[in-house]
Amino acid sequence: MAKAAAKKAEKALVFAWEGTDKRGNRVKGESRSANLALVRADLRRQGINPVKVKRKSEGLFGMGNRKKKITTGDIAVFARQMATMMQAGVPLVQSFDIVGRGHNNPSMQELVLGIKADVEGGTALTEALRKHPLQFDDLFCNLVQAGEQAGVLEALLDKIATYKEKTESLKAKIKKALFYPAAVIGVAVLVTAIIMIFVIPQFKELFSSFGSDLPAFTVMVVNMSEFVQAYWWAMLLGFVAAIMIGGNLWKRSRKFREAVDRTLLKLPVLGSILHKAAVARFCRTTSTMFAAGVPLVEALGSVAGATGSVVYSNAVLRMREDVATGQSLQLAMRQTTLFPHMVIQMVTIGEESGALDDMLAKVADFYEEEVDNAVDALSSLLEPLIMVVLGVLIGGLVIAMYLPIFQLGSVVTGGH
Predict the structure, then answer these.
(1) Cα 237 from Cα 144, distance rounded (Å)
(2) CA dihedral 33, 39, 41, 44 (to 10 degrees)
(3) Which residues contact 84 (CB under 8 A, 6 or more apart)?
(4) How far is Cα 313 from Cα 255, in angstroms, rounded to an integer?
(5) Which of 127, 128, 124, 91 is nearest to 112 (CA)?
(6) How far apart are the first and last CA of the chain?
(7) What does the alpha-carbon distance between residue 134 and residue 140 come to, in Å, rounded to a whole number?
């Protein structure tokens, strides 16, 4: 059934139409449907008399009608819109219709309207969402299911929206910490390659007319330039191959992802940020699930995939097994040796007082703020450090090229 729905979604086309409404006013717009007849029928149901309906041109190589990818940000916005609609008293099906038709991303529009069609056909909302596992993970579906069963769907959608917004904010902070140094290193490599391939050969021709020995530093740089000129294609192919192989291993091998995660967690400064981010995600997700009434053992199964780290994910799955055998959460956390003492103490107080969800939410707030401060501190630390590295790298190449000229100048001056 899910395959049939996916196939149907793939065949949806975009049609541009013009017509008149009930008052005789001219209106126009776009609709997505499988064929022209369905578009006309849908317009008539809305009280619009279609005058002209034609399939929208896809442009060169189909680029005009290419679907945009559905991002986690789209899902976060969807959750907030649905929560707002339902809290305002708008019926579920109508909420889907309003949110779906108002979305700018055609793929998201198609997804939401597809879920609406399933719900209209009598499918439970949880089951309709489970048909789209790439967009709605177990955590999302479990929370919706808890809301449906308890009759508080709007309250749970609000919790999901808040959770998604906070996790997206945390992801953005981590990306911010990684993007700046990566971008600067990329520019440094590009500038160095240009100097090696195009600039240094010009100096080499100039040096050949000097008729004297070059400084050792200059000779080393010239030799490096000749190597880069001869084998730049092999270096580029090797770089692309390494990225492709690494990407393939990342997708297919959990052990490889765990090894990379362990390495990243051991890095100075950045490792600390990733540790805090994983703890924040664990606490935020567990708090949201537990507050929704999802049993702790079941909640930990969903939480494992939401930590953003294979190392923490494996630890949470081990904790789940321990808790299932009757062990307390704080003791299971202590045995992983990953969680800070303060977090374990807060969980202990939460378990003893029966307010575990509140305690975990407080810990999540604290660590999210810690990540924010750490990212700002890292940016401040990296800026001068990167400038020094760039200065040494580019400055070193420039000095290597000008050393023979300085040497020649001193010889000429000495001769006089």
Answers:
(1) 47
(2) 130
(3) none
(4) 12
(5) 128
(6) 93
(7) 11
Q: H-type helices in 71-199, by residue range?
A: 72-87, 92-101, 106-120, 125-130, 138-150, 153-194
Q: How far is CA 357 from the centre of its chain?
A: 26
Q: Give the span between the Cα atoms of 45 and 48, in whole angstroms.
A: 7
Q: Which residues contact 80 (CB under 8 A, 6 or more apart)?
A: 161, 164, 165
**CA distance linking residue 279 with residue 307, whole number of Å:** 7
Amino acid identity at 396: G
Question: Cα separation of 344 and 355, whole Å?
Answer: 14
Per residue in 33-81, pLDDT (tens digit) is 767 777 787 777 777 888 888 877 654 444 444 567 888 888 888 888 8
- Full 3-state SS string of 352-410: HHCCHHHHHHHHHHHHHHHHHHHHHHHHHHHHHHHHHHHHHHHHHHHHHHHHHHHHHHH
- Location of structure tokens 């189909």: 62
Q: Model confidence over 379-405: pLDDT tens digits?
A: 777 778 888 888 888 888 888 888 877
Q: pTM of the full predicted structure?
A: 0.68
CA 165 to chain centre: 13
Closest CA to 191 of 401, 404, 405, 390: 390
Is the CB of residue 328 less than 8 Å from the CB of residue 344?
no
